[in-house]
Specification:
The protein is mainly alpha-helical. The protein has 10 helices and 3 strands, in the order H-H-E-H-H-E-E-H-H-H-H-H-H. Strands 1-3-2 form a 3-stranded antiparallel β-sheet. Helix 7 runs antiparallel to helix 8 and helix 9 packs antiparallel against helix 10.
């Protein structure tokens, strides 16, 4: 039996997983720059700051109540995350979204995430199973209410959706594979958030596909779970692309 991934190896991965949310209040963050980072990030992911918008320091200071230094540190981190673009001495802009980038992210998810899931199931433990069961339960509760308040619940759904997908693959034994999958999740989040808020994928479809993946994982059927995950990623991508890009073309 291969050894379980060491805790030290997963330090950076867990930092990504356990990031405080913007609504947690400033006390949840170690520094003002971390709080500013979370708040600006949330406004970008939710669409409050639309793609291509210039982020003016004076406006950000007024809106968030932070000084210039924490805001600049936060913007630099967001630029490293590719959610913000820095243009020399001209300032910062919210990064654009594009269908080409979305398709590239989707293809990389299809390449990496099913492999991570298969490895995770092959190494299955009771602790892993318990984590997946808990994550699936929380996600199902949110998804069951999505049609009632899709805009309000899109952020909560995103958190629980990411937690479920991560719980499935976290036992894969490769910190690098986990890190790459999490980077892709970060990059695709604002595409998903916008599409879920507009009900691009019906809640019945999300519930059915997540349930099928969950059942296959609990049955330790790695091959079936991997194939179901591919179908889920592809189906979601089609719905998201139609909502985000077809609508934009018609509007233009």
């Amino acid at each position: 039996m291969r050894p379980r991934t060491g805790e030290a190896d997963l330090t950076e991965v867990r930092k990504l997983k356990t990031r405080p949310e913007a609504g947690a209040g400033q006390d949840a963050f170690a520094t003002q720059s971390e709080a500013a980072y979370a708040m600006i990030r949330e406004d970008i992911l939710s669409g409050n700051f639309e793609p291509g918008r210039k982020l003016l320091l004076d406006h950000l200071r007024t809106q968030y109540g932070f000084g210039s230094s924490p805001l600049r540190e936060a913007l630099s981190r967001l630029a490293a995350d590719r959610l913000v673009m820095a243009k020399g001495q001209k300032g910062y802009w919210v990064a654009a979204i594009s269908e080409d980038e979305f398709n590239d992210i989707t293809s990389m998810r299809l390449f990496l995430e099913p492999e991570a899931l298969e490895r995770s199931i092959e190494r299955a433990t009771i602790d892993w199973e318990s984590s997946v069961v808990a994550a699936f339960h929380r996600l199902s509760r949110v998804e069951d209410s999505l049609d009632v308040a899709p805009v309000r619940l899109s952020g909560e759904w995103e958190r629980e959706n990411r937690a479920f997908h991560l719980a499935l693959i976290e036992n894969c034994g490769s910190p690098w594979l986990l890190r790459f999958v999490l980077v892709l999740a970060e990059q695709s989040e604002r595409y998903r958030r916008q599409a879920v808020a507009r009900q691009a994928v019906p809640k019945e479809t999300l519930l059915r596909e997540h349930r099928a993946i969950f059942d296959a994982a609990m049955d330790r059927n790695a091959g079936l779970a991997s194939e179901l995950l591919k179908v889920h990623i592809k189906n979601s991508a089609v719905g998201l692309a139609k909502t985000l890009f077809t609508s934009a073309e018609k509007a233009g």
